[in-house]
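Translate structure to sequence.
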């Protein structure tokens, strides 16, 4: 759900990102910048005799506060953030400024400028102003987690978690558990399609993948099964799903809560109230699982047995995080890990159904390099570059986080403008993903564009960085990739995914994250 955004604060960033302003395309390229001055760290000083000093923010174009308010509050701009992002870039160019309520944002939709910002990051980059998230935590005496923490606290927690889930080999061990969840996903598909007249269509795959993603991520982070994919979902789990739906609605809530200044809250109390209610539900959800695991470990120790387990057990035993930090991180990881994965799987399924030739090529590679029935494990995925390319291309066309944010930690010259330290930047990933200069035939689904000589191209393309880049990038990336790669491989081994008369054209909408604006219906046809 970063909610980027992941992320609630991300949601604010996204919102700001949409309000972009104008500028002449290509003028503010990095090359021009370097020519204009001597770079000292991130700051560029005018060279003696150099043509022009950087311009001030006053000279930067962008939409006015009033037009933003109209766009967002009167024309439901919150649902069209990705489109507004593109509109503003057409009007103002690849760098522009916006005011939104109390917030001031400089938006960037230039691949080189994005690379410049991310490559120059210090040891603890700040994503966005997280005031509202921090305020909730202060109010309830809760800790921050990775998404909401900053500075030394973030760095300390990140160092602990990075070692447990960010390296590919850390997540290899979860293949078995994820495959068990995929067994249930396949059974669920068979049940659902048997209820349809043609015996093949599954309506609303979004719902199906939401349950899959929740089950898979819970298997990894809570080390337990929730029963989301059973025909009769346990009552307890239904309550959990409700809590997660709250979490989903929170992205929008966060946007409103962040955009409304504190002094206005007594007059417009609902967004802040709902924001707190959503967080209460989420924290409660995580606390139950962490406490259960803690009791289990204690019982094990009391019996004098060796304690074995996965991520949660390892963190609890190592005591590298306090209990409050653990609640907060489990809460924020779940928040970030369910909708992101399920939307991406929904879009991948939709794109494969709409592009049968691409699907056939991917299937052929699976059969050739893995086999028709071999259950894949993480170690097998590198043999299937096309599956990885399908995920990359899906995330280029539908980046779950259509924008991201950074607060500048030094003065910085970008696109010929001097951006002072402490400025909120919005990185407009949706727009760069569709920029024809960065991606030929950018509207088309072409996974092979990510391959070079049949292998995944390792060179980072800053036009599409769906998991972010660098030290503050997505910590759940390997988990998400594992869940998506394994699910896609096994679904393609088992079924040909086809369109049905019920398959409508589905466009994206922004609901905090970029998500399908309608239900996706496809046929899962048994392979002969
Ligand atoms: C397709 C799936 C996913 C996508 C596209 C995605 C994308 C992102 C992006 C763009 C960021 C911000 C990175 C930055 O600021 O540079 C992020 C951060 C984060 N993601 Fe993901 N994510 C996904 C799945 C997951 C999963 C499965 C988890 C947890 C298991 C997760 C946990 C997090 C956390 C905790 C952060 C904050 C990291 C930090 O600030 O240190 N994400 N994600």
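Result:
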């Amino acid at each position: 759900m970063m909610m980027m955004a992941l992320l609630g604060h991300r949601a604010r960033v996204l919102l700001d990102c949409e309000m972009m302003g104008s500028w002449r395309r290509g003028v503010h390229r990095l090359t021009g910048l370097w020519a204009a001055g001597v770079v000292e760290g991130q700051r560029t000083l005018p060279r003696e005799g150099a043509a022009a000093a950087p311009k001030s923010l006053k000279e930067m174009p962008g939409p006015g506060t009033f037009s933003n308010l109209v766009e967002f509050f009167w024309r439901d701009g919150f649902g069209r953030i990705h489109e507004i992002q593109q509109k503003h870039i057409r009007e103002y160019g690849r760098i522009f400024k916006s005011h939104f309520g109390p917030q001031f944002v400089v938006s960037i939709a230039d691949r080189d400028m994005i690379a410049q910002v991310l490559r120059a990051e210090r040891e603890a980059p700040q994503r966005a102003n997280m005031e509202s998230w921090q305020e909730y935590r202060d109010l309830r005496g809760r800790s921050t987690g990775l998404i909401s923490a900053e500075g030394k606290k973030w760095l300390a927690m990140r160092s602990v978690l990075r070692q447990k889930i960010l390296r590919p080999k850390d997540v290899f061990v979860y293949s078995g558990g994820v495959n068990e969840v995929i067994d249930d996903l396949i059974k669920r598909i068979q049940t659902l399609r048997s209820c349809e007249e043609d015996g093949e269509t599954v309506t609303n795959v979004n719902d199906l993948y939401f349950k899959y993603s929740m089950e898979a991520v819970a298997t990894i982070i809570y080390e337990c099964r929730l029963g989301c994919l059973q025909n009769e979902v346990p009552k307890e789990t239904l309550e959990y799903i409700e809590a997660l739906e709250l979490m989903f609605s929170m992205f929008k809530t966060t946007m409103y809560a962040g955009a409304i200044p504190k002094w206005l809250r007594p007059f417009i109390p609902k967004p802040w109230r709902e924001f707190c209610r959503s967080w209460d539900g989420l924290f409660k959800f995580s606390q139950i699982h962490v406490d259960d695991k803690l009791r289990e470990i204690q019982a094990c120790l009391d019996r004098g047995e060796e304690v074995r387990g996965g991520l949660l057990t390892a963190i609890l035993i190592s005591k590298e995080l306090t209990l409050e930090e653990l609640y907060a991180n489990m809460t924020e990881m779940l928040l970030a890990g369910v909708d992101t994965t399920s939307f991406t799987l929904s879009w991948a399924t939709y794109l494969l159904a709409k592009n049968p030739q691409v699907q056939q090529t991917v299937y052929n590679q699976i059969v050739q390099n893995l086999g028709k029935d071999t259950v894949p494990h993480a170690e097998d995925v590198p043999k299937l570059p096309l599956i990885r390319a399908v995920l990359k291309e899906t995330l280029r066309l539908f980046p779950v986080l259509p924008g991201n944010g950074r607060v500048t930690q030094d003065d910085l010259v970008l696109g010929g403008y001097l951006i002072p330290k402490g400025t909120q930047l919005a990185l407009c990933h949706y727009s760069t993903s569709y920029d024809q200069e960065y991606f030929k035939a950018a509207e088309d689904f072409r996974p092979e564009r990510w391959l070079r000589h049949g292998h995944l191209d390792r060179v980072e393309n800053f036009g599409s960085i769906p998991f972010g880049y660098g030290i503050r990038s997505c910590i759940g990336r390997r988990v998400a990739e594992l869940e998506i790669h394994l699910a896609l491989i096994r679904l393609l081994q088992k079924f040909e995914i086809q369109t049905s008369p019920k398959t409508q054209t589905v466009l994206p909408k922004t609901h905090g994250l970029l998500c399908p604006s309608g239900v996706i219906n496809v046929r899962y046809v048994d392979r002969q």
